[in-house]
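Minutes, project check-in
Item: structure for the 87-residue chain
Input as provided by the requester:
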Amino acid sequence: MLNLNLDSFMVEFKDGSVKNVGPTDKSATAKLFDATDVEGRAFGDRRVKIVATDAEGNEVQMALDPEQAAAVADDIDALREESAVFE
């Protein structure tokens, strides 16, 4: 399930194109629940890409700096040791 929350989002569809209208203070949050496939891979020479897909074909991608990817890996290792999530 993909949950997409858009704030102050306004676009215009005209003649097959999308045009930004309104203020430039738009923001969005995307959440993917019940991922069925998750992978990490190199993205260019300096990033790590994490891709998660659900059974409906929804996909979320994140490109992280190596330090950010390592921090996520450390967080998961800590959960393995300290949390009941992995039991």
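Outcome recorded: The chain has a mean pLDDT of 93.
No further action items on this chain.
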